[in-house]
Amino acid sequence: MTVTYAFSPKLVNYSQTANACGLPYTIPVGEIIANAFLKVGQDRFNGVQAEPPVGQAKGTILDGYRVILDLNQFGFDPVIGGGEEDRYNAIVDLSLLAIYENSGGTSLAQTPLTYHKTVTLWTPALTSQSSSCSTSPIDGAVEEAAETLAKEMASVMPRLRQPAESNPNQLRSFTTQTQPPVPQTHSPAVQFRTKLVDANRNFVLEAGESIVLLIETTNVSDTEIQSAYVELLGTPILVEAFQRVTPLPIPLGSLKAGEKRTAEIRGRLGSISKASQGELMIGIILSEGLPPGMHSIRTEIQPGPPRKQSKQ
Questions:
Q1: Which helix or strand (DSSP H or E) is residue 262 part of?
Q2: What is the mean pLDDT of each run of 10 residues along the chain (312 residues)?
Q3: 2-175 has which fold?
Q4: Are 285 and 228 in contact (CB under 8 A)?
Q5: pTM assigned to the model
Q6: Which CATH number fits domain 190-302: 2.60.40.10, 2.80.10.50, 3.80.10.10, 3.30.930.10?
Q7: How far apart are CA 64 and CA 67, in angstroms?
């Protein structure tokens, strides 16, 4: 098949500033994503082109497909040092929405594409012997995320060619994530806020301590969501704290259009051998509609409460 990409202005023009070599560096996020999708497309499809401003395509090739790519979320967040001065860990969070059209302009499907990974980067500090800052590891991490999603999108494309006559319900079940299919606004179906509360409220999680995760979820779409679940990822000791109390993922039930609901998810920390930094990533899984991406809560973890010093 042949594919024509239409990258949204929001995606093409997006950039984010990160630390590199002790100096601010502007990551050309949109440029990297567009190049990665074209690169993967050249390997996976019979023909690939892009509409302006990325390419010069003036229309979709007959019997080909047009893919509209929009940016929902991008995050590049340093977490902790990597144990060496010139290395640090960062979370790369990329969420895209792909909308598929045939050559006649009819919408066929839409799929959310999500990438979340912690990477270790090498960005050496500038010295008197160095004349430039090495930013290629940062660009490379973003490129890896984009290529991963491009391959995921490419794996979906062959299903667009399955004839609807052989199974009239097959294409519909694949293409309709909400009713009606492919709405004009491609925003998440829900919004949510999160808060992690520890028992003594000192903002430090300690061994054996009870914790509560508060999640306020609002259905901002025009239709009822039949079922929603809370997904927890991240540092194992934090995820296990909640698994001790309730199975994962955690059901929220149905959400009527405009409905707001707050859930309290309780957990208890197990034994902790040494102090560390932890991260809890919270996502919402939906039966229909575009998911809202993930929230990240970072916190300090300690073996237990600090010992009281004896009076002399």
A1: strand 260-268
A2: 90 85 82 94 89 86 88 78 59 88 83 83 54 74 92 78 43 31 56 89 89 92 88 88 86 90 92 88 81 82 66 50
A3: Double Stranded RNA Binding Domain (3.30.160)
A4: yes
A5: 0.53
A6: 2.60.40.10
A7: 10
